[in-house]
TrEMBL record, chain A:
Pfam families: SBP_bac_8. It comes from Thalassospira mesophila. InterPro entries: SBP, TAT_signal, TAT_signal_bac_arc. The keyword ATP-binding does not apply. This is ABC transporter substrate-binding protein.
């Protein structure tokens, strides 16, 4: 039954002469009619009807669970995608403990490192992924350009592949079996208020500069906060790390000791935990330098307040997520899931995410869905010729704006460390709590 | 009383309440106690019987620091709410003569409670901030030249918000107790030449004790378990027991959170028991 369907599917998928985009457009245009039934003889209309009855349940963190994507899936592919947004801890827990409650898991790579070995996900056959060769090399080899240095932490390519279809051991080099298809990723840095600082900032060390006493903040999510703290400690020359993404107990202790010292000296105005807290701290001028996420910068600027996502010489702290398939998927549902993944990489979603200020897995396909001006602003670090619009149609930047940090290569090529989960996680969380209580 | 029929009738009458308590209080509490002995890893809780959660909790200096901090907030909030609450109740009970006005003024006290307590708390943030209304006003009038930083994201801010939120919990029971005081006692005191202070010390305060005890129980239990006020008003820089539990739940460390909750529950029960030892509420009510 399953193999029969697979072979049928292969026969109806367009050959190399038909572009993916053209295929999708055609599919959308003939919605309700069996896909290309005129062009491909012997294609059973049953399959096309059946796939419309498929419902795929996807869950993940809020950033990539976008309703517009589900709507577009319905429009382009005909089947229903149900989205559930949870926080990252809950996502990880659900992926491990309730394997039958989802079909597609949208998880971050550092979560993947913990979750995939639990055996509730199945790897994807890259032979079935049409735009596999368009996926950014960051996720395949870890090197954006052949001479880039591989960043510390849970770099996506380290957990991107397993040895075989039933394996849960991560492969050291790319194989045919991919764990996650990247969805969304970005490079994080410090946000600053240039109007209140009035001088150039170029190092993570500035976060603990006494000049900003009582005007600095760091995010209070232990797994990410500790990385920012490590970037700062290393930039100050206080500590050298073997791997900031997997510290030893001693490295953790030293880092926390440094942070406690700064806290007691009154360096921090507050610690933030949620997106809106970080926006308010910055917008009200309580804080002039802090760890920040890129949409928060956009939110501060939309209030007409100057705020910069400052590139720093030590590099960025990057994060990324991807979608994986549940172990239980088979038959028609599995085929629908592959259809979805192929569609995901075909450009529409990529363009949508790029316009939000994130990066998409296969930049080349996204380019075809973006105007030259949009591509120039978001991806090439060029000055915007017209107003920059968000996917929802809101003006994000006026004409003439240049993206902080510049082009895709400049930003993603300078990643110092990826978000990760440490072997000493429990110890780290306990030490972090000491810092908060100090 | 001892007739079998009426006894059966009493049992029948208390059954609904007993069931509600059993299902919604006793069972969840027992579950928490059981889970506090379980083990956990990053994503799962594992049925077990270990003391690690407790031994880590009680052996960690962070716990003691957090408890000290929580006691500090509870004590300060209690002292201020008692002072303000007693004064307001005294004014309402003894200075306002007409019942209509007592009711009107009492309603006035409850007006802030028409909005959610989160909103009442958050409204302090723009007021107290570095560029907030208060600092702007003080600097505008030339009283200060630099903004006062301690106003927000500090212990001061936490206690201020707590006092603002919970004073009414003190006013209501004290007012209630004061209204029950036989006015002839006060007249008698005055006739015998007692000063205002002496009347207050020897008659009003002792007879208001049940109200003070009930108000104190309300305020202390709420502040001991609070986490959102501490988090928002201290800017995430201070910790309280409630906040610790909330963090542990956030990181899916349910057994650790359960152990913290059990220890907190025991602590609060001890405080309440001590208060009830000082004042026999049952006798006074």
């Amino acid at each position: 039954m399953t193999t029969e369907k697979k072979s049928k599917l292969k026969s109806i998928l367009p050959g190399k002469d038909v572009t993916r985009r053209g295929f999708l457009k055609g599919a959308a245009a003939t919605a309700g009619v069996a896909i290309g039934s005129g062009a491909i003889t012997g294609f059973p209309t049953i399959w096309a009807q059946n796939i419309k009855n498929v419902t795929l349940r996807q869950f993940g963190t809020g950033v990539s669970n976008i309703n517009a994507v589900a709507d577009k899936v319905k429009e382009d592919l005909g089947f229903t995608l149900q989205m559930t947004a949870l926080d990252s801890d809950a996502v990880a827990q659900r992926a491990v403990t309730q394997p039958n409650s989802f079909d597609i898991a949208d998880i971050e790579y550092w979560i993947c490192k913990k979750v995939f070995p639990a055996g509730t996900l199945q790897p994807m056959d890259v032979a079935k992924i049409k735009n596999y060769d368009k996926i950014s090399p960051l996720f395949i080899t870890g090197k954006l350009t052949p001479d880039s240095k591989i960043a510390q932490g849970t770099a996506p390519h380290k957990v991107g592949f397993v040895d075989g279809p039933d394996s849960t051991d991560f492969a050291s080099a790319p194989t045919q079996w991919m764990t996650l298809i990247p969805t969304i990723y970005n490079a994080d840095t410090l946000g600053i208020r240039p109007d209140l600082i009035g001088r150039p900032i170029n190092s993570w060390a500035e976060l603990l500069n006494p000049e900003f006493k009582g005007k600095a903040s760091i995010l209070n999510i232990p797994a990410i906060g500790i990385m920012d703290a490590a970037m700062v400690s290393e930039a100050m020359g206080e500590i050298t790390y073997g791997d900031k993404g997997n510290m030893t107990q001693e490295e953790i202790n030293k880092t926390i000791a440094l942070m406690i010292e700064a806290k007691r000296a009154g360096q921090f105005r507050a610690f933030w935990k949620s997106f809106d807290e970080s926006v308010n701290l910055m917008a009200s001028g309580e804080v002039v330098i802090q760890s920040m996420w890129s949409p928060a910068i956009a939110a501060v600027r939309s209030k007409g307040i100057e705020c910069k996502y400052q590139p720093l010489k030590e590099g960025y702290r990057a994060w990324g997520g991807g979608i994986g398939l549940a172990k239980h998927l088979s038959g028609l549902e599995l085929e629908a899931a592959y259809e979805y993944i192929n569609w995901y990489l075909s450009g529409w979603v990529g363009a949508y995410l790029n316009r939000q200020g994130y990066y998409s897995a296969a930049p080349d396909t996204a380019k075809t869905f973006m105007s030259d001006d949009e591509w120039g602003y978001w991806m090439e670090g060029k000055e915007a010729k017209g107003d920059v619009m968000s996917p929802e149609g809101k003006v994000m930047e006026k004409a003439g704006a240049v993206r902080d940090g510049g082009s895709y290569e400049e930003r993603m090529g300078h990643v110092a460390c990826w978000n990760s989960v440490m072997d000493e996680n429990k110890h780290m969380v306990r030490k972090w709590n000491e810092f908060i209580a100090a | 009383m001892s007739a079998p029929n009426s006894k059966r009738g009493s049992y029948f009458l208390i059954t609904p309440m007993a069931l509600i308590f059993a299902i919604f209080l006793v069972v969840p509490l027992l579950t928490i106690v059981v889970v506090s002995f379980w083990d956990y890893d990053e994503y799962r809780i594992l049925p077990d019987f270990i003391f690690e959660n407790y031994s880590y909790l009680l052996g960690s200096s962070v716990t003691w620091q957090i408890y000290l901090n929580t006691f500090k907030y509870a004590a300060l909030t209690w002292a201020f709410t008692l002072g303000i609450g007693f004064t307001v109740a005294y004014f309402l009970a003894f200075y306002v003569r007409s019942l209509t006005w007592q009711i009107i003024l009492f309603m006035v006290c409850t007006i802030p409670f028409w909005t959610s307590n989160i909103i009442r708390m958050i409204s302090w943030i723009p007021f107290l901030g570095r560029n907030g209304l208060l600092n702007q006003a003080l600097m505008g009038t030339g009283i200060i030249h630099e903004p006062l930083e301690f106003l927000l994201f500090s212990d001061f801010a936490v206690v201020l918000a707590d006092v603002h939120l919970y004073t009414l919990f003190m006013v209501v029971p004290i007012f209630n107790s004061m209204m029950r005081i036989d006015r002839s006692l006060i007249e008698a005191a005055r006739d015998n030449g007692a000063s205002g202070w002496a009347t207050l010390r020897h008659i009003i305060v002792p007879l208001s004790k049940p109200g003070i005890a009930i108000g104190s129980i309300f305020v202390i239990t709420v502040v001991m378990g609070d986490f959102i006020t501490v988090r928002l008003m201290s800017g995430g820089q201070s910790a309280s027991v409630g906040l610790q539990i909330s963090n542990e739940i956030g990181m899916l460390q349910y057994p650790a959170a359960a152990a913290s909750a059990v220890v907190l529950l025991i602590t609060v029960l001890l405080i309440v028991t001590a208060l009830l030892r000082l004042v026999d509420i049952r006798k006074e009510l």
